[in-house]
Amino acid sequence: MAGRTDARLQELNIDLPDAPAPAANYVPFVISGNLVFVAGQIPFTGDEIKHTGKVGMDYSVAEGKDIARICALNIIAQVKAACGGDLDRVVRCVKLGGFVNCADDFTQHPEVVNGASDLMVEVFGDAGRHARFAVGSNALPRGVPVEVDAVFEIS
Length: 155
Known about the structure:
By secondary structure, the chain is α+β, with helices and mostly antiparallel strands. It has helices at 4-11, 61-82, 109-124, and strands spanning 29-32, 35-41, 44-45, 48-49, 90-101, 131-137, 146-154.
């Protein structure tokens, strides 16, 4: 039987992807006590990266926000794996970190990272509200426009 979080995902018409495998020498998440630290997630869709480039040059703010949402879907998939498939173990999203590969004069990082933040609140309600940072970068791994990492409290 699906839990309340899986039911919420279904209600939102969200199909979680499989948790992406690490692309280098790291693990996708670490559980320490009741915290899950999720490694930075990039916009993998299936086994491929469909988005490369810079926000403010190759992508609009709205497109960057959509790409941040893809990263957040991958974060939720990693948390689900960390919780043995039971997203109802999530007590809250504690913190998100958003990195935006952008043009030098770009300043709308918060609006881009809202794509990830908004999804956490849509899926987890008040438990999805979190502390956050959103910063710009001149490059990100594999040339992606956005990378997001997270910390969750679980039961």
